[in-house]
Structures are given as structure tokens and as C-alpha cells.
Amino acid sequence: MFGSTILDLALGVLFSFLVISLVTSAMTETIASAFSWRASTLLQGVKDLLNDPGFNGLALSIYNHAAVNARSSGGATSQANLTAIPSYIDAKQFASALIDVADLAPGLDVAAMQAKIKTNVVDPQLKTLLNGIVARTGANIDGLRDEIANWFNTGMERVAGAYKRKTQFWGFCIALILAVALNIDTVRIARTLWQRPIMEFSQPAANETAQAAIMQAQKLGIPFGWDPEAITYVETNSYNWGFILAGWLISAIATLFGAPFWFDALQKFVQLRGAGSK
């Protein structure tokens, strides 16, 4: 069975990963909100989906529609004139807006709808798509709305993937800066905890904030930060900076898994440690 030293080492490392993940997530969300990353990524995704890179055709009409952008005035003539940019668009609402913009009124037959598409939709690829949907649904307005909504959801999955990659990249950069600034060196933490195990550890709360996590880490004595001991460690190991850089890099890479992952892992190790002798 695992010894308490091994469990304490794992707890300390996992808690360190949780701390930096919480701080990184909070900072990334703050930056994303400040720079409207979600809204701008969604806007670019809709422009790509509707083949309207200049934002002067269908994409502009969709963003002026109240079903998609109820907070706007509806009179924007360019992207710069948009008074509000939504961070989320419901697929059904998008489908309804596209149906209205293309003037596909209920009660029209297949030929009449395809004629409307030919008149109101300029892009050939979208014409082919909408004509096919109209033909498959037999000009049924509910079926048409469902098909367009499914097409929109499929396109937004790629947009969500692009947004996730963007936030992961910036999250990693922020985490690396934090790891260096706060000296969260996984190698040093593991080495110190192996020599000096944790004496007491309380299970973290589900709604624990980044500040509370840092305070608890300080109480536990997990070695991070630029205290005199850390500075001495760096100076005495200046010949082997590879381990120090690796420790910072490991801490930054760990944030890519996200705070919930490390929180769940930490709970399991706390339960395992609590099942044995203290």
C-alpha cells in the first residue's frame, strides 16, 4: 500500500496544479470578457458560415435581425456600426432569422421557395445548400428550420473548437508567466514534499476561489513563491537550470487540463489519504 509520504507528495503537487489552474482560469476569463473573445469569435464564425467575409451581405442582415441580436438597433450598415454583438446565438433563432432574410414564407411550394432563394441569396454555395434543404423538406417551414438549425450547430462546433484552442493557448501563456512570477516549480515542490510531508490537509470546497486556494496552499507550507529559501535554491542550482525550467513548464502544462480536473483528482486523493492512518 502507498505510504503517507507518497500520498502527501501527490496531494501537494495536485493542490499546486489546482491553485495555478484556478488563477489562470480566472485571468483568462477576465481577459476574454474584456476583449469580447466569444462575441468576436462567433461573429467570425457566422461570417465564414455564410461566406460573407466583408460583412455586407447575409451575415450583416442576420446580425441586424432581432431574433439574433435583439440589443442592436437593426440599422447597422457595417461591422463597425454594430451597437451590440451577441456572445451566443440560439440555433433555432438563427434559422428563423435566415428564413426571414431569404423571405421563405410559410405556405410557399418548393418552386416558389427556390425562386426566393435565387433572388435573395447571392452566394452560390448557400444557394445550393438552401435549395437542397427546401427540396428535402418539401418546403415545410418547420422542417426547413430544423435543417438550418442542425447545419448551424455543426458549423458552430468548429467555431467552439477554434475558441477553445485560442483560450488554451493564452491560458498556457498566462500560466507560464504565473509559474515564473510565483515560482511554482513542480520539481522543487515534489522534492521538498518528499523530504517534508504535509501534516494536515482539509478537503477543498467545491466553490473555492483562486485567492482561497492560494491562502490554503500557504498554510500547508507548499513551497512556492520567491522567498529567501526559493532564491537560495535557484542560486545553488544555477548550474542545472534545466530542472527549474522543467518545473515551471510542467506547472503551466498542467493548467491545460483545467481546474475541475485537478479538483476531482484532489478529492480522490484526499479520500484515499483519509481512509488510512494519519
Structural notes for this entry:
With 278 residues, the chain is an all-alpha fold. Helices cover 68% and strands 0% of the residues. It is built from 12 helices and no strands. Helix 7 (141-181) runs antiparallel to helix 11 (241-254). The longest helix has 41 residues, at 141-181. It is elongated and about 80 Å long.
List its salient traits.
single chain, 278 residues, mainly alpha, 68% helix
* β-strand number: 0
Low-confidence stretches: none
Q: Separation of termini? A: 14 Å
Helical residue percent band:
55-70%
Shape: elongated
How much strand content do the residues show? under 5%
Element layout with pairings:
Blueprint: H1 4-34, H2 37-49, H3 58-64, H4 91-101, H5 110-120, H6 124-137, H7 141-181, H8 186-195, H9 210-220, H10 228-236, H11 241-254, H12 259-275
Helix pairs in contact: 1-7, 1-8, 1-9, 1-12, 2-7, 4-7, 5-6, 6-7, 7-11
